Amino acid sequence: MPELPEVETIKRELEKAVLGKKITGVCVHHPKVIREPSVEKFKKGLSGAVIKNILRKAKLLILELSNGKALAIHLKMTGQLVYPGNGRTSRVSFRLSDGKTLDFNDQRLFAEVRLIDDWRALKFVRGLGPEPFEIGPGQFKAMLEKKKTKIKPLLMDQAFISGLGNLYAAEALFRSRINPERPAQSLSEREKELLFKEIKATLSEAIEHKGSSVDQYVQLSGSPGGYARYHKVYDRKGKPCLVCKTPIKRTTLGGRGTYFCPRCQK
DNA sequence: AATGGGACCTGCGCGC
DNA sequence: TGCGCGCAGGTCCCAT
């Protein structure tokens, strides 16, 4: 499931592959993924536009266009962007001035594509908390103060801190040796500092390896990311902890599968 | 106010 | 072999 490292990977690859190219046509195979405006306006608003700038806000991908509009894409769980595309499973195909297509795929139809005038005004964007790389340890510690919520759901709350999802929240907590159910405010100063450091380290390493391919995520080229082999707890239920050999446990927290080592994470 | 659960979806893996 | 069920999770929405 694409989280910050996966979306950042795609963003960097898009910059190399499609920046400066013109969208010459759009083929909408499944209208449901176009959340706004109408499919007709969507096609019309994109045709002839040049991709001027590519940016990422948390897990949202934004392509700024020469006509002042922006294409905002949230991959949710199974969204993919593939270039050059083959069109076989695409929900939307963008034909580019180089004769190739940029394919948007999404098996489960959760993803959201929008063509909008002002992406900064999106409710989703306005509700985002800071990304881990935008703050320092002092601010992170202050944010955790008085928070009674369990630490893992809090890390996944995009209004609190943005970019982490289920996978990287679990990995960062393991590396910090913190139990996912701990109330946030119960963390010691040292633990808060360590957690902040490990969040950034986990995300950085995942970006270096071009993301984790679990479920459907692929790089722009269509090949998988390389970080899954470094996961220490995610999807490792029953397998020995890489530190102490205790079997990794899986529980449900905030409705989400939560992996942790019952011995290392206190 | 904060928290929890369901809805949205489809494909896969499991048990019988 | 085949079928039905549960599960996967990012975000929104609603109820408590």
Task: Provide a short characterization of the protein structure.
The chain has 266 residues and is an alpha+beta fold.
The SS-based structural class is: alpha+beta
Total number of distinct structural domains: 2
Structure annotation, total helices:
7
Q: Tell me which oligomeric state these chains represent.
A: single chain
CATH second-level architecture of the largest domain: Alpha-Beta Barrel
CATH class wording of the largest domain: Alpha Beta
Major beta-sheet overview: 5 strands, mixed
Task: Please trace the helix and strand order, writing H or E for each element.
Answer: HEEHEEEEEEEHHHHHEE
**What is the CATH third-level topology name of the largest domain?**
N-terminal domain of MutM-like DNA repair proteins
Low-confidence stretches: none
Mean pLDDT: 92
What proportion strand? 15-25%
Kindly list the characteristics that best describe this protein.
266 residues; alpha+beta; N-terminal domain of MutM-like DNA repair proteins; Helicase, Ruva Protein, domain 3; 2 domains; 5-stranded mixed β-sheet; 4-stranded antiparallel β-sheet; 22% strand; DNA-binding
Write a structural description:
With 266 residues, this protein is of the alpha+beta class. Helices cover 27% and strands 22% of the residues. The strands form three sheets. A five-stranded mixed β-sheet has the order 2-9-5-4-3, covered by helices on one side. The chain has a four-stranded antiparallel β-sheet with strand order 1-7-8-6, covered by helices on one side. A hairpin with a 2-residue loop joins strand 10 (249-253) and strand 11 (256-260). The longest helix has 20 residues, at 189-208.
